[in-house]
Specification:
Protein name: Diguanylate cyclase
Largest sheet: 8 strands, mixed, barrel
Helix content: 40-55%
Number of strands: 23
CATH superfamily of the largest domain: EAL domain
InterPro entries: Biofilm_reg_signaling, EAL_dom, EAL_sf, GGDEF_dom, Nucleotide_cyclase, PAS, PAS-like_dom_sf, Rev_trsase/Diguanyl_cyclase
Number of domains: 4
CATH class of the largest domain: Alpha Beta
Organism: Rhizobium leguminosarum
Shape: elongated
Pfam family, one: GGDEF
Radius of gyration: 50 Å
Length: 632
């Protein structure tokens, strides 16, 4: 119809004025119209071709995008299902819309449980565990109303197999939520372990100092007006020597045994803690004091007096204790702990192996003691010491055969400080090793200037055996002074052997093999002197001056002296008698054929500069022919 209308339009245009049709005009119009339409057809064909090409490209792009989408979908699923964390998404109606494999594994769910319409409530009922209800943690199911009140919540689940699952829930504005779920079992156990270690001693399992302070704080806060609270501070005497001689591992084993014995003595009603390496503390409440804490201290001492064993090795320990009682000795933790520590220091200063109750005057004494300790450390650094020498007199040769080195401290302010005031302190604070090493070197240097036949005797502390390499120290002192080992004599007391006989004996044998002479000092004052004489071939025994005082006028004292001299002779050991102060004592000892004497009758200790003068003095005359032997 469109073409016919166009033809009639062309015919109208070809009509002349007289009403006839101009055939040529009509033909021209038709041809022109054809040419126009022919051009349009070409354009249409070209457009169609273009559209076909573009459609082909578009289909290729769509196919590529589809493939890429499939790849992204697979990648998303791989990532989703290989996440180390569980992931879940719930819509505003709390229905599951998305989850991964880890989510199912964490909560023990099956694939069938995770249907498209599964709700949080449905899944909670099917979980192999329950939600934790620890105080301070939000619990329960989330509703849309509560969801809008918070954007982030934490939930924890305790599973039937012991695992702990933590869920971090992000709640969106429309009430839907996205949750990340993690197994925090190991992290929680590690945190609990850290918390435990922060409050307990890992070696013994006892509360540590921090926990003990918390317990004391709480106990003092809850103390009734008529209630007394006792705090006992315990310290094992000379325990460091066990670590030094037997090793730290052996020391730890013994500490565990100590903890068990003290735990049994303290009982469950009292609080026991380990404050440090060899320090413990007990808090005793609800008891009549000081009677019950005294009984507790005695019980602990009895328990710890029994030998300890590490393999076949037997170790004996003693304990010192300081006791403070609230409210008399303090109503605050710091004060009570300090006062118990002050009482403990006094117990150790008084000879160890005992307990002391805090008294107000102790604090002033401790301040003086701390000042003395500071001065003693400075004295070691500044070498404020000097040696005095007391002669050893050979009765058969009637001459001085050697000298005992005795330390003196010349304090710039205090003046001359007696050895009895600073030697025990030096042993307690560990300075005796440095002091003993200095004495060895100085004594050897001094002796090297004396005549060849004059020896020097040096006292050695038990701590020097356990806390230093005594053999090396002695060797270095001899080499530095170019002194013959045969001119050095080391004096030890029974306490050295009591500390740890099995460890001390090899050191003594090594020293003796080098030609150094070994003497037992203060013989007869201990409990086991005779047994120790059989354990080591001493070169000499020195009889304590307490046996000398009455030998002239007391037959029993004379008889004891006679027996000891005979014992030394029978064992092939020289005998030196200390504390000889009169000619009568000297004469009697000459009659008993004693080997050596030492005492003020010969000479008091003198500075090294006086040694040449002492060596030049004439022999002492004891009047042997005028004093008969005592009858036995």
């Amino acid at each position: 119809m469109k073409g016919e209308a166009l033809f009639w339009q062309q015919c109208t245009q070809a009509v002349t004025d007289d009403g006839s049709i101009d055939a040529q005009r009509l033909m021209d119009l038709v041809i022109a119209t054809y040419r126009v339409h022919e051009s349009n057809y070409d354009e249409i064909e070209r457009s169609v071709e273009t559209l076909l090409r573009e459609n082909h490209v578009l289909r290729g792009n769509i196919s590529a995008l589809s493939q890429a989408f499939d790849g992204q979908k697979k990648l998303f699923e791989i990532i989703l299902n290989n996440l180390p964390l569980g992931l879940s998404v719930f819509d505003a109606d709390q229905r599951l819309t998305l989850s991964n494999i880890r989510f199912r594994q964490l909560f023990g769910l099956t694939q069938e449980d995770l249907t498209a319409d599964a709700t949080i409530a449905d899944l909670t009922d099917k979980m192999r565990g329950r939600e934790s209800t620890k105080p301070g943690r939000r619990t329960g199911r989330h509703s849309a109303a509560t969801a809008r009140s918070s954007s982030l919540r934490r939930r924890e689940w305790l599973m039937d197999d012991g695992r702990i699952i933590q869920s971090m829930v992000t709640i969106l504005s429309d009430g839907s939520n996205i949750s990340i779920h993690a197994d925090i079992t190991e992290d929680r156990r590690a945190a609990e372990r850290i918390t435990y270690l922060a409050h307990h001693d890992p070696l013994t399992g006892l509360p540590n100092r921090i926990h003990f302070r918390e317990q004391v704080d709480a106990t003092l806060a809850e103390r009734k007006p008529d209630e007394q609270i006792a705090l006992v501070h315990l310290n094992l005497d000379r325990f460091k020597s066990i670590n030094n001689t037997m090793g730290v591992s052996a020391g730890d084993k013994i500490l565990q045994q100590v903890a068990e014995r003290v735990r049994a003595s303290a009982g469950s009603e009292n609080t026991l803690a380990r404050l440090g390496s060899d320090e413990f503390a007990i808090l005793q409440t609800g008891k009549q004091q000081p009677w019950n804490v005294t009984a507790l201290a005695e019980q602990i001492r009895r328990e710890l007096s029994e030998p300890f064993f590490h393999g076949e090795k037997q170790v004996e320990l003693s304990v010192s204790m300081g006791i403070a009682i609230a409210p008399e000795d303090g109503e605050e933790t710091d004060i009570l702990l300090k006062n118990a520590g002050v009482a403990l220091s006094h117990a150790k200063a008084d000879g160890r192996k005992r307990e002391r109750f805090f008294a107000s005057e102790m604090e002033a004494q401790m301040q003086l003691r701390h000042a003395l300790e500071a001065d003693l450390k400075a004295a070691v650094e500044n070498e404020e010491f000097e040696l005095h020498y007391q002669p050893l007199y050979d009765l058969s040769q009637r001459r001085i055969c050697g000298f005992e080195a005795l330390i003196r401290w010349n304090h710039p302010v205090r003046g001359r400080v007696p050895p009895m005031d600073f030697i025990p302190l030096a042993e307690e604070v560990g300075l005796i090793v440095d002091i003993g090493r200095w004495v060895l070197r100085r004594a050897c240097n001094d002796a090297a200037q004396w005549p060849e036949g004059i020896k020097v005797a040096v006292n050695v502390s038990a701590i020097q055996f356990s806390s230093s390499d005594l053999t090396r120290d002695v060797g270095e002192a001899l080499v530095a002074a170019a002194l013959s080992p045969s001119r050095l004599e080391l004096e030890i007391t029974e306490s050295v052997l009591m500390e740890n006989l099995s460890e001390v004996l090899p050191i003594l044998h090594a020293l003796k093999e080098r030609g150094i002479r070994i003497s037992m000092d203060d013989f007869g004052t201990g409990y086991s002197s005779l047994s120790y004489l059989s354990s080591f071939p001493f070169d000499k025994i020195k009889i304590d001056k307490s046996f000398v005082n009455d030998i002239v006028h007391n037959k029993e004292a004379h008889a004891i002296m006679h027996a000891i001299i005979l014992l030394g002779d029978a064992l092939g050991m020289r005998v030196t008698v200390e504390g000889v102060e009169t000619a009568e004592q000297l004469a009697l000892l000459e009659c008993e054929e004693c080997d050596e004497i030492q005492g003020y009758h010969i000479s008091p200790p003198r500075p090294v500069c006086d040694v040449p003068h002492l060596l030049s003095l004439p022999p002492k005359n004891g009047g042997v022919t005028r004093l008969p032997k005592a009858k036995h």
